[in-house]
Amino acid sequence: MQEGKRQKQVAAVIQHELNDVFMRLGLNMIDGGMVSISSVKVTPDLLEARIYLSFFKVQDANSALKKIKDQAWEVKKELSDRVKHQLRRIPVLHFFLDDTLDYVFKMEDIFKQINSGQEEQKKSDDN
């Protein structure tokens, strides 16, 4: 099902404000790595928000995600202070690990292997 206009608007507001909240609480840098909010999806009733987090150069992404989940109440409180005049109800925040970046790197490696295999085959065919 496709997202509605209001869902997209609320998700954009939440994503923008959460970026500031993460910087303020020091959650954008964990274990020497960087944490960014890759996307926010809101349910049609606007009562739940799924926040997908991307981790870069973090040793253990699951433990970093757990640290963020442990501070979810504080994050929601900061968020509600910022958007209380824009939203009637603050959605429940659910944090998820976004692994699309890992998937992209994996696919690039596979394409490099395919290209190197084709180049080697062309060289052997030429000889």
Main attributes?
127 residues; alpha+beta; GMP Synthetase, Chain A, domain 3; four-stranded mixed sheet; 4 helices; 21% strand; elongated
**CATH homologous superfamily (4th level) name:** K homology (KH) domain
Count the E strands: 4
Decide which structural class fits the backbone.
alpha+beta
The helix content is: 55-70%
Series of secondary-structure elements, N-terminal to C-terminal: HEEEHHEH
Q: Please report which band the strand proportion falls in: under 5%, 5-15%, 15-25%, 25-35%, 35-45% or over 45%.
A: 15-25%
Number of domains as seen in the coordinates = 1
Largest sheet: 4 strands, mixed
- Overall spatial form: elongated
Account of the 3D structure:
The chain is of the alpha+beta class. It has a single domain (5-99), classed as GMP Synthetase, Chain A, domain 3. It is 55% helix and 21% strand. It contains four helices and four strands, in the order αβββααβα. The protein has helices at 5-25, 61-70, 72-83, 100-126, and strands at residues 29-30, 33-42, 48-56, 92-97. It has a four-stranded mixed sheet. A hairpin with a 2-residue loop joins β1 and β2 (33-42). α1 (5-25) packs across α3. The protein is elongated and about 70 Å long. The N and C termini lie far apart (55 Å). The mean pLDDT is 84.
